[in-house]
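3.2 Worked example (two chains)
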Amino acid sequence: MRYRLFGRTGLRVSELLLGTMTLRSEDLARRVVGTYADAGGNFLDTASAYGESEEVLGAVLTRRDRFVLATKYALSRDAADPNAGGNHRKNLVLSLEQSLRRLRTDYVDVLWVHLWDRHTPVEETMRALDDVVRAGKVLYVGVSDAPAWFVARANALAEWRDWTAFAGLQVPYNLLERDVERELLPMASALGLTVAAWAPLAAGKLSGGTQRSGPLSEREEGGARAVRAVAEELGATPAQVALAWVRASGALPLVGARTPEQVLDCLGEVVLPPEAVARLEAAAPFERGFPADFIAECEPAAFGDGLVVR
């Protein structure tokens, strides 16, 4: 297993992140986490909204300090309580305390904002996150499923006011779902954020798994067929190829393995040759749209022969 730095910090995280939302049995969770840890994996991702699975993870986490333990807050803890959900300070404090009890720990390494809340001022969220970092209950913070402008503004405020900035961004990303390439991935690259890609196997569509529901579209089938072909040529599994494509973009795949066998299927340091990356992307066409494609088209005329290419 190889490791990367988490955002602009010194924290080392494995190139394969493990999501634990589907773990419901302590015996199974112990085997899944053990298989992942034996391979060198060190990042475990959960959330306050995952309920039972967060408790199960806490029960089996015997080597706590060897892991980068991440949880999330924002989703409602009680649908009847208007303050039991959202990005505000009250929900942050109560959700975090609940997660710490379930996980049987006095701190988490990463606390993600689970979902953007348009009703809570960004200043309140960032100051509240900084407070729990300064209290020692959280070491690093990240954000999931939010607009690029919100993340950029949040980190600008954090920099100006000496608060803790987001170090990571969690978004859905795979060969078949590439919307985040329009705004979110360029923003993350510019700000130095680590991207954790959830659903990197497109709910089993790219691995041949059983999670998918209904027939594949023509584009999806084309992408899945290309993944299988490249896997056969490289002597790898389709899952390994699909995850290698995510890593080639600079993102880290976050896999929700349900069994030790699924963990093993995702392991392997497959590196895709440029030709294979091009074949995969051609099999599942994607257009970034305006403004990215328009700017790329206009750059030669706009900036002349002196255009700098990175």
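3.2.1 Second chain
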Amino acid sequence: MTDDLFPGFASHWIDTETGRVFARSGGSGPPLVLLHGFPETHAMWHRLAPELARTHHVVCMDLRGYGWSSAPRGDPGHETYSKRAMGRDVVRVMEELGHVRFAVAGHDRGARVAYRLALDEPGRVERLALLDILPTFEVWRRIRAGTQPAAHWEFLARPEPEPETEIGRDPLPYFEGLIRSWSGGKSLDFLDRRALAAYRQSCNEPTRIHAFCEDYRAGATLDPAQDKADMAAGRTLACPSFLVWSARYLVRSGAEPPLEAWRKTFAPGIMGSEIDCGHFVAEEAPAETLAALRPFLEG
């Protein structure tokens, strides 16, 4: 159980269009929802959420298909796991908890949900913090240009049931191998054992493996198509935005700096901060990540 990772936080099960979403909430002040990445759960925020709850009403939720939230079957067009659809879950959760407008901080896949929500419903999102991502269509542009490895993006997006079957033979080594390879120390040592247990529970189950693949299938089809439509229409993020990026994962030799990739696309005025760690900034470098986020969220 991860209850002891979030002392004083309440637990919620909230009905949505495709099932139930699990969330925790704690603290008082302006509302802030935290969205986790792949292949983790809301537990990834355990080193930041209690500190942020000193100044905010913090909500940590499991995205659909992850953690303790429902894992619906995907559909042929991958709409079920589009970031637009997952953003609707965020709105439902926050409204159920009494918040129409709120700040959002997201890591990895959660950050993709966050910026899609901010573009789709600019009246909802007051501030947007993105942890260690580039726009989805930009990632695919680099993959197709050969300047970034396709890696798990292409593999997980392959048609069902190829990746589900291959991963399902021995799920934990696959997912733990990804976490190791993306971390700054190339190990699992940075993880709290209780958080790691939550990730293992979430990854080691066929319906969730399918959900992860559907997340990436949507990420290869609907999500970049929606990005491109917004780019063609000249839409940009209406709220203040902030990027935290890792020096040992997102930064690639010879590539355009992460901040510039956002400024040229959806966030002309975005500011940000680099953290000297691997991809899992909130767990590998919580003090530095909190120090970067706090002035922005309280501004």
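3.3 Remarks
The domain at 3-298 is CATH 3.40.50.1820 (Rossmann fold).
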